[in-house]
Amino acid sequence: MIRDIAKEVIIKEAEAVEGLLEKLDENFDKAVEAILKTNGRVIVTGMGKSGIVGKKIAATFASTGTPAMFLHPAEAIHGDLGIVTSGDIVLAISKSGDTSELHQIIPAFKRLGIPMILLTAEVDSPMAQRSEIVIDCGVPSEASPDNLVPTASSTAAVVMGDALAVACFRERGFSAEDFAKLHPGGSLGRRLLVRVSDLMHTGDKIPTVPESKTVMETLIVMSGGRLGIAVVVDANGKLAGVFSDGDLRRLSERGEHFFDLPIAEVMAKNPRTISPDAILDEVLQRCEQFKITVLVAVDDDKRPVGIIHLHDILTSKLV
Predict the structure, then answer these.
(1) Element (H, E) at 160
(2) Is the pTM above the cut of 0.70?
């Protein structure tokens, strides 16, 4: 019985969100264009549950490159309107489109010449008539039995706000690295800001052998490096290949004497490499994609400049 209630709520809210697809029209385009042209901030405002939704939307905008802040309507009419400037744009949220506290601050926006975007379920409401752009967020019904508690409608408003924020940052070309710069304290931010060059083994810590060496000579160097890999270079110092613990295991399974073989005959000749300027997230993606734990960092001339091991990233606690 309890799970049936939960299923009913989830279904109703999912249907409400899906119903927004049919409501997307030129007003959504106009809203995104207006936000992108704004020199100031997106001032998000709403009362009650709409205010809680507004705080989330403002946070999403701000974290994705669109300066934004939440303005509480009740506080606004008691002095906080002073934070609003003529270069801003307002994103108001009101299911009824007739919230008294919002009505009281609209004249201040008008005096400053600030355009207002309204997210509402009532596109013909008094507030809609006073707004420059109206986006329909109406839902067939709430998920509560009495159809009174804001549930599906608040979910729909959140989703529409997210759609606006994502459309804006994609139009701006906001990148993962841009996102990381705004989130330096989180694990994702650290993954996207820290470079391979910050963690890679360099100089004499790179177990390197010329391709003229034997397997035995390579194993000695590889053992000393303790990275499970040896980097093989040609006469010009460019990467020729690598020899790993896995290569040794496969070679030993052949059941023949191989210690005196030239390493050039048994090395992996097309190893996976990475730029020292690459971010850690790219390292993680490549390691996952190719099922490997080590990457050789090379410069523009294909010369090895470092080795990055998955273990180095994990022990750094950056992920």
Answers:
(1) helix 152-172
(2) no
> Where in the chain are the domains?
2-174, 196-315
pLDDT tens column, 16-74: 999 999 999 999 999 999 999 999 999 999 999 999 999 999 999 998 889 999 999 99
Rg (CA), the chain: 29
Q: Residue 106 and residue 43: Cα distance in Å, rounded? A: 12
Q: Does domain 2-174 have CATH number 3.40.50.10490?
A: yes
CATH topology of domain 196-315: CBS-domain (3.10.580)
Report which of 143, 13, 157, 21 is spatially closest to residue 94, judged by C-alpha positions.
157
Percent of the chain with pLDDT over 90: 70
Supply angle C-alpha 110, 79, 125, rounded to 5.
Answer: 40
* Nearest alpha-carbon partner for 93 in 162, 46, 158: 46
User: Could you give the CA distance from residue 133 to residue 255 in angstroms, rounded to a whole number?
Assistant: 76
